[in-house]
Amino acid sequence: MPSKTSRSSRPAFRCADCGHEVAKWVGRCPGCQAWGTIEEAAPARPALAKVSAGAPSTPARPIAEVDLDSARSVSTGIGELDRVLGGGIVPGAVVLLAGEPGVGKSTLLLEVAHRWASGASPGASLYVTGEESAGQVRLRAERTDSVHPELFLGAESDLSSVLGHVDAVKPGLLIVDSVQTVQSPDAEGSPGGVTQVRAVTTALVALAKERGLPVVLVGHVTKDGAVAGPRVLEHLVDVVLQFEGDRHSSLRMLRGVKNRFGPSDEVGCFEQRDDGIAEVPDPSGLFINRQEAAVDGTAVTVMVEGKRPLLVEIQALLMKTEMAMPRRSVSGLDSARVSMMLAVLGKHGHIPTGSHDVFAATVGGTKIGEPAADLAIAMAVASSQTGRPLPPNLVVIGEVGLAGEIRRVNGVGRRLAEAARLGFDRALVPPDPGPVPKGIKVTEVATIKDALKLVRRRKQASG
């Protein structure tokens, strides 16, 4: 029988995400149900009875005497990216940019490196690629007009070589594409593994803090859109950005998931083009389709992404069906909320949809998840079912409860101001919307029945 000492010295296996320990290696963690996160861990060392004090690296100072100049953000040259970062990138900050393959992460960061090299930012920019050859990146730089003498390019997958490039170039900005392809000689495992990703990220974070060098890391994502690798990766870095986009749409959204230097709910808008990625300072025009004649089944709402209000057009189409189970097809909207609106319309608005196929979508490929679009969804469905279009230049804002009541949403004033700026002069809003900007007339509705009166008063548009 093995002794107690041999059992305590036996190596354990621990989950890199939740820390759950198991006696032997398994493919799936029993604690958090994550795959591929179990790794061998050395046995815990006995706790010391006393820890001796050591000399601090820098003396502690009153917080009012700490220099702020070293923490001032520096513009990247791309306004939409600066918006998400909180004004620019801070020296010594480590930014993790994650996104699906082909969304344009490398193209965006190559443009960032070019703007940094050609601008007034301190130092050159170093772009290290571990996924492509230097010639492939040069071809992309030629296509996007991103070639500059102060933009240095290195094709390396070894961490020691990357640090050697930093010592040789002494850049003001380091971009590593991607962190899953770089391997540390001091860590075990293959590139992209939990141990390797943690070791590489830890070394680059230490490099950034020691030299005040801003570092941007490209990260892969899993099938469900989460950042690949251990969860500790997101804790090590200072900023986590998510680059999103539909393959069938040119729109790209940059979302701030974590930001130690600014707001974490800001959004930047970009457009994928043949010659690269261009920022879109005013993206509302991409999500609405202004027509001279009113069309039934459409409603315009104002969503808020971060602090930015965006006008979005919602379309609905109802078709009579003989099938026992009508179709419910949704694109860009929450299917659960669309089903709720259909139930509320049938119960409180006397709008039957049980014998109709229902198709609901947003224009421009954007996604709406906030409840403020409930009333617009309901009005679009009712307009399509009755064949009566909503009044022109009307925006619809409000959350709809299961009892048919219209609830208030946040930021109504900002939403109405954006609608008035784009030429809308009428709005359907919940009660007590607060201060209303000039140039727009609001109609307050307390229930879904009050809102549907607007549709029923409209005569069917003549052909």
From TrEMBL:
Record SMART domains: AAA (SM00382)
Region (Lon-protease-like): 357-463
Gene Ontology MF terms in the entry: ATP binding; ATP-dependent DNA damage sensor activity; damaged DNA binding; hydrolase activity; zinc ion binding
Gene3D superfamilies: 3.30.230.10, P-loop containing nucleotide triphosphate hydrolases
Gene Ontology biological process: recombinational repair
Binding site for ATP: 99-106
GO cellular component: a single term: cytosol
Source species, domain of life: Bacteria
Family annotation (InterPro entries): AAA+_ATPase, DNA_repair_RadA, P-loop_NTPase, RecA_ATP-bd, Ribosomal_Su5_D2-typ_SF, Ribsml_uS5_D2-typ_fold_subgr, Rubredoxin_2
Motif (RadA KNRFG motif): 258-262
Domain RecA family profile, chain residue ranges per copy: 70-221
Alphabetic keyword roster: ATP-binding, DNA damage, DNA repair, DNA-binding, Hydrolase, Metal-binding, Nucleotide-binding, Stress response, Zinc, Zinc-finger
PANTHER family recorded: DNA REPAIR PROTEIN RADA, DNA REPAIR PROTEIN RADA-LIKE PROTEIN
Free-text comment on this protein's domains from its UniProt entry: The middle region has homology to RecA with ATPase motifs including the RadA KNRFG motif, while the C-terminus is homologous to Lon protease.
Recorded family membership: Belongs to the RecA family. RadA subfamily.
Role this protein plays: Plays a role in repairing double-strand DNA breaks, probably involving stabilizing or processing branched DNA or blocked replication forks. DNA-dependent ATPase involved in processing of recombination intermediates, plays a role in repairing DNA breaks. Stimulates the branch migration of RecA-mediated strand transfer reactions, allowing the 3' invading strand to extend heteroduplex DNA faster. Binds ssDNA in the presence of ADP but not other nucleotides, has ATPase activity that is stimulated by ssDNA and various branched DNA structures, but inhibited by SSB. Does not have RecA's homology-searching function.
Designated name of the protein: DNA repair protein RadA
This protein's encoding gene: radA
